[in-house]
Design a protein that fits this description.
Elements: H1 7-19, H2 24-38, H3 43-77, H4 115-124
Helix pairs in contact: 1-3, 2-3
Length: 125
């Protein structure tokens, strides 16, 4: 688990890891294939599965922390924080086209410049 002292390194690793992510389902399928060939109780396979579970849990923690840090940095950039002037306008956070995370799926996009009316229209559905 990251600490304040290791936060920058942990976030840097999380960013790198997101670009080189191996799907958990692919690893699980590989481990299932190994268990069919070598038996479910094979000591090496059990150890490998245990290591995978620990690594997967740790990378999920890093990904969660990365998502939280991205939003925190954006929010603190929209207000005066630690006597630093704001870097963006707070309205940036309210734009529906603004992705909160770099890997978020945009479920709706603007048709016009009047996005407030479009949101009101969507909420009425």
């Amino acid at each position: 688990m990251p600490t304040d002292a290791t936060e920058r390194a942990d976030l840097g690793f999380a960013l790198w890891e997101r670009r080189h992510w191996i799907n958990a389902s692919a690893v699980e399928a590989y481990l299932d294939d190994l268990s069919m060939r070598h038996g479910r109780r094979n000591p090496r396979l059990l150890r490998l599965r245990q290591l995978w579970m620990e690594d997967n849990r740790a990378r999920n923690y890093r990904a969660d922390r990365l998502r939280q840090q991205m939003v925190k940095r954006l929010w603190t950039g929209c207000i005066e924080y630690n006597r630093e002037p704001r870097q963006f306008y707070p309205e940036t956070l309210l734009k529906p086209s603004f992705l909160q995370y770099s890997f978020e799926v945009l479920e709706w996009s603007l048709r016009t410049a009047d996005w407030i009316s479009e949101v009101t229209e969507l909420n009425a559905l």
